[in-house]
């Protein structure tokens, strides 16, 4: 188990090291408090030194913001293409996470944060981390994410297609982009599903919060099997099915992609960008080498009932960024011996599509999200 060590006065201390983004164990850790200047903190963090905070909690947040502003002042390289802009953006985001992740706090056995004016983070940390075994050091930036995720879990995310809220868990992608949910809510169901609703079955692969499984169940499908490779997502989907009183129709299965058997409708909303995620929440956005996309296409025919359809929900943002071409997608569909019945398009409504200051604005403003209806 990785352990960090530090000294206060003549006393030596240690704590388990935990990082959700798998950041390496700091090679050097020093104590920092309210006397720490932002320039000094930024310099030491860039050099790889971890700063274990023992001052006021709100001052630590202010210091973190000040360090972030210093990162923002670094002039980004000009890019000649959207592809280069994307890779520069990812590199910058990774560097930012590593630098800001050097400001640490220690959680006691019961998740108590022994800092002045610190909030009660016990429930938020228990939801994210599970039981602790001894004092644990985490980055303040990560802890703030845990606190924010707890608030989302409590309040939920409004889903107009359901007329209610879905409650995401920490590390599970929240359905904040409603266009893909609306596509599943309004696309006509396959004929076999409409004609025999009492015996209809659907699979929701990569269910996340379970939002699409809930939409399918609300549309009258008798049995929806929701799968995911992320244990946190499986727990989240089960909880949401219970909240919506849909446990008699939604069966959560996994970890894995395809469940046993065949279905009339198989829905998959894989991560849209073929790149490496750097944190748990990014696994809902980035799919290295389009692995999940290809696994879905390769296994679809074997799991469809006669007359059934596979619905692939995919953005073309990767195409605008030069990460994947349309011919490559069509070739993958053909190689899996699948036929495109229809493609239903919609434009994103999220604010980033209209943010001209975003380095990827040209790609985001041209983005289209599509539901591909596929048959064997």
UniProtKB/TrEMBL annotation:
Domain Methyltransferase small: from-to ranges: 198-315
CDD domains recorded: AdoMet_MTases
Q: Name one Pfam family in it.
A: MTS
Q: Which PROSITE patterns match?
A: N6_MTASE
Listed under GO biological process in this entry are: methylation
Q: In which residue ranges is the amino acid composition biased (Basic and acidic residues)?
A: 346-358
Bias (Polar residues) ranges: 366-376
Where in this protein does the record put region Disordered? 346-376
Name the InterPro entries for this protein: DNA_methylase_N6_adenine_CS (IPR002052), N5-glutamine_MTase (IPR050320), SAM-dependent_MTases_sf (IPR029063), Small_mtfrase_dom (IPR007848)
Q: Name one GO molecular function term.
A: protein-glutamine N-methyltransferase activity
Q: What is this protein called?
A: Methyltransferase small domain-containing protein
